[in-house]
Design a protein that fits this description.
The chain is of the alpha+beta class. The chain has five helices and 19 strands. Strands 6, 8, 9, 11, 14, 15, 16, 18 and 19 form a nine-stranded antiparallel beta sheet that branches. A five-stranded antiparallel beta sheet has the order 7-10-17-12-13, with no helix packed on it. Strands 2-4-3 form a three-stranded antiparallel beta sheet. The longest helix has 13 residues. The radius of gyration is 20 Å and the shape is globular. The mean pLDDT is 91.
Length: 305
């Protein structure tokens, strides 16, 4: 999920979604892994020139990205969907043009304590053995595109690029996540907690461990009896509290965290022993799931004159 708060972002999305043809294209892209432009034109019964025109608008709104792959006659352009859920803040009065963005690979964790069932894998292979936490220490863990555990925690350091004259106003953190069941279970609730620098922000209950269908980006070698995709969630901490997808999970505000330019910022994702629903956690990164992203962070700040 992506927050849209500026006029240009909202206008670009509105322009993209006003066309029934572009809506049809988005649905086709979502349901077909790496469909190419020629296939889109044929499915929508429009010319190649028309599909190129529509694709430019979808790209301008940051809904779709294109990649090249070898084709029968040279290279072909393949389409993948970037986002399909949005939180639109039409009443925003804050100047949110000052920000920095970064993306943390799911394997780039700095601390962990996990319990089986657990495991870690890159886009090409399992790293070590399943249900053996020691392989979270393997050097190859940095290349991970997915990791999972039943209970415990995983922790990441968020890069802090603030200058001394800047004040953090909002943190936006998005990630693809699900429960972790032995095998697959679409109804497997899990209370997953989030904290920044030890301050607990609240929790979100994941409804299940999804794998009845294959994730759009999950590799073909992945075992069909394992979870294959998650839900894209947006964690926001601002002056009004802490939120998941716009729903408030606590009164912890960005000001109460007292984050300054010289501070380390840590994000912990946990399934604690005392959770009402201990149903595990799976984090999906690039090369897995439905979104082909790692942990995206956007920091909004103001500057002193």
């Amino acid at each position: 999920m992506r927050i849209l708060s500026t006029e240009s972002e909202i206008e670009a999305l509105s322009k993209a979604l006003i066309s029934p043809t572009r809506i049809q294209m988005l649905k086709l892209i979502a349901n077909n892994r790496k469909i190419n432009l020629n296939e889109l034109a044929e499915a929508c019964n429009i010319t190649n020139g028309a599909v190129t025109h529509h694709m430019k608008i979808l790209q301008d709104s940051n809904l779709v990205e294109l990649s090249f792959s070898p084709g029968i006659r040279g290279s072909q352009k393949n389409c993948t969907l970037k986002d399909y859920q949005f939180l639109i803040d039409v009443l925003s009065t804050d100047d949110k043009t000052k920000n920095y963005e970064t993306e943390i690979p799911v394997g780039n964790f700095t601390q962990y304590k996990v319990y089986p069932t657990c495991g870690i894998a890159s886009i090409s292979k399992l790293i070590g053995e399943v249900d053996s936490p020691r392989y979270f220490d393997a050097p190859e863990a940095r290349d991970a595109g997915i990791l999972w555990f039943t209970k415990g925690f995983i922790e990441y350091r968020i890069p802090n690029y603030l200058e001394k004259n800047q004040t953090l106003k909002e943190l936006q953190i998005s990630f693809e996540i699900s429960s972790e069941a032995p095998g697959i279970c679409e109804n497997w609730p899990s209370d997953i907690y989030f904290s920044i620098n030890g301050s607990q922000l609240g929790y979100w209950t994941s409804p299940g461990d999804f794998g009845e269908t294959q994730g759009l980006f999950t590799p073909d070698w992945w075992d069909k009896h394992w979870n294959s995709y998650g839900l894209l969630k947006l964690l926001v901490i601002n002056d009004y509290g802490s939120f998941i997808d716009g729903g408030k999970i606590s009164d912890v505000t960005i000001g109460s965290l007292r984050l300054k330019a010289e501070d380390t910022i840590t994000l912990r994702i946990a399934v604690p022993e005392n959770a009402a629903n201990i149903g595990g956690c799976t984090l999906f990164g690039k090369g897995f799931g439905n979104y082909n992203q790692d942990i995206k962070v956007r920091a909004l700040f103001t500057e002193k004159e």
